[in-house]
Amino acid sequence: MNIGILGAGQVGQSFAKAVLALGHAVMLSSRQPESAEMQALAAALGVQVGTVEQTLAFGGLIAVALRWDAVADVTKQGDWTGKTVIDMTNRFGGASTLSGAQEFQQLVPGARVIKAFNTIGAEHYPQPVIVGQAASMFIAGDDADAKGVVADLTRQMGFDVVDVGDLAASRHIESLAALWVHLAGRAGYGRDIAFKLIR
Ligand SMILES: NC(=O)c1ccc[n+]([C@@H]2O[C@H](COP(=O)([O-])OP(=O)(O)OC[C@H]3O[C@@H](n4cnc5c(N)ncnc54)[C@H](OP(=O)(O)O)[C@@H]3O)[C@@H](O)[C@H]2O)c1
Question: For 63-117, what is each residue's pLDDT tens digit?
Fold first, then answer.
């Protein structure tokens, strides 16, 4: 399938590598798609690079690999109608009573937002196995078909998929991301860690 990835940073690039390995076609978005740096990255990875509008038009599935503070701006660009959207962002802090993914959904009402990929270091996306165990990937969303598409892709990538429920349940996934960041950083466990739901 055609996968559009908004953001070409650590998360965007690592997700691109993981889905390219499964045979999908990728376009990464950039604010400077014509820059020498982005053209070199595109050639090295074997992807196309475009604007946000072009990337939205390219992908049936859209992965959002942006800093949270870019979301309000980017959701005003392009046509999000009917898109299955993976919200991979982490919105740490703030006083909202909604999860980040619920806020995201409100910004793109015509899209089907699924929360996933925010609870592990991005470098593990292409090979999500730590000490011989497949990392769990927690996903949440309201649309069963969209969640099924994301779950299938995530499973093909090698993750142990855990369906947490509807989009309101994404708040729990977002809390888990905060714990991952604490464990990897201040608590001193480093980035080669992952959550696993034993059941
Ligand atoms: N790093 C991880 O291991 C990890 C894992 C899971 C989830 N996350 C979450 O995933 C998101 C991305 O993280 P990252 O580490 O990939 O960050 P990053 O390396 O800083 O990349 C962020 C990307 O967002 C783009 N961007 C920033 N502002 C923009 C705007 N106004 N319009 C369009 N594009 C904009 C940047 O483009 P420019 O280069 O042009 O600035 C860059 O490509 C964050 O929400 C993070 O919390 C990170």
Answer: 999 999 999 999 999 999 999 999 999 998 888 999 999 999 999 999 999 999 9
At 159, the pLDDT band (50, 70, 90 cuts) reads very high
Ligand 1 binding pocket includes 113 (Cβ within 6 Å): no
- Determine the Cα–Cα distance for residues 149 and 1; give it in Å rounded to an integer: 11
Cα of 67 vs centre of ligand 1, distance in Å, is 4
pLDDT in tens, 105-127: 999 999 999 999 999 999 999 99
Cα distance between residue 34 and residue 83, in whole Å:
25
pLDDT of residue 95: 84
Query: Is 86 close to ligand 1, i.e. is its CB under 6 Å away?
Result: no
| Contacting residues for 189 by C-beta, under 8 A, at least 6 apart | 183
Number of domains observed in the structure of the chain:
1
Residue to substitute in 6, 10, 89 for testing ligand 1 pocket (most ligand atoms within 8 angstroms of CB): 10
Note whether residue 22 is domain-resident.
Answer: yes
Q: State the CATH number of the domain containing residue 112.
A: 3.40.50.720
Closest CA to 125 of 93, 90, 153: 153
